[in-house]
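re: that complex we talked abt at group meeting.

here r the seqs, copy pasted straight from the sheet so there may be weird spacing, ignore it
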Amino acid sequence: MEKTWRWFGKKDNITLSDLKQIGVEGIVTALHHISNGEIWSLDEILDLKNYIEAAGLRWSVVESLPVSESIKYAGADRDELIEKYKISLANLGKAGVRTVCYNFMPVIDWIRTDLQKKQENGTYALYFDRVRFAYFDLYILKRKDAEKDYSPEILEQAQALDKTITESEKDELIDAIIVKTQGFVNGNIKEGDQNPVAIFRRLLDLYKEVDKNQLRENLKYFLEKVIPTAEKYGVNLCIHPDDPPFPVLGLPRIVTNAEDVEWFLKAVDNPHNGLTFCAGSLSASLNNDVPVMAQKFASRTHFVHLRSTNVFPNGNFVEASHLGGRANLLELIKIFKKYPHLPMRIDHGPLMLSDIDKKYNPGYSFLGRMKALAEVSGMMAAVEALT
Ligand code: DNO
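got the structure back, here u go
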């Protein structure tokens, strides 16, 4: 696998020469300044590509070329947006940037309730707490009929939380779930937006009539239109699994388990229609055996995210060390070893040491990811030598 790193563009405080020093080979990035739904011009793509190459690196993967909400819920302007998406894909192919990650999760890109959960060793990890999430849904969002989606125990614990939670803790929860995790990945809500909860409610409303089958149809419709362009320009598209891989906020989910991936790969059975194998996302469901899934889908995997989680008996999960947790990265490295050019990035890392006050995007601090890259590089070297 090729060692890549998610870099947020020229404004990222982590520079390309920093990355060169720590053994990164390829860059994962996006034209973050272009709004969702707008065309990525060849000039803009080439400008960034040349900048990356001048530092002795290559632009290996686009993460993400975002899919507009209207394509996901089949809004009136979806065909127009799909045409723009095809132009961006063609421009990427012409520029020689040939791996493109995206996701098809309605409204919200990825979800955590706690962005700095203190760990026993003093570092901080990203965390998902079922009660705090239910609290957000029931007491902050006040989603209609939400109580039907939770067990009596969770409802009771959420009610208890309501008695103790402070206003600033509520704001922190809103910030974690729908603001800080979203803006930097070209999501729907950014820091500074007024009344994010109201924006979020309006977005959820767009999916009132969309169930899982309808979402699958909308994805298939999109793929049938874009895959021929991807094929023509030699681009590999790779969908990112849903994070977390279980139902949230009454929204349909699209890629959560092996059955979903099988459906997806068959829906448009073309090698350019592939998967981002995000080990961390998939590992957060106890129903997923991550190495078994990797074995099954390796040949249609175009991009790998290495990360792991620990899932607790109550369903809460925490991001684990890259050497531990239930994703089993060592096994994954053995499986993906067959593909020397397959881009792999370290996904998230612990927040630690002098990075704590540096305000990196959640999950994307420098030292924690550098440590994880060193651990993964060690595992890769051992697998190479011993198998
Ligand atoms: C968060 C990531 C997501 C993911 C995008 C892919 O750290 O898992 O932002 O990269 O959803 O489209």
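couple things i noticed - Residues 63-64, 101-103, 109-110, 185, 240, 243, 363 surround D-mannose (CB under 6 Å). The longest strand covers residues 58-63.
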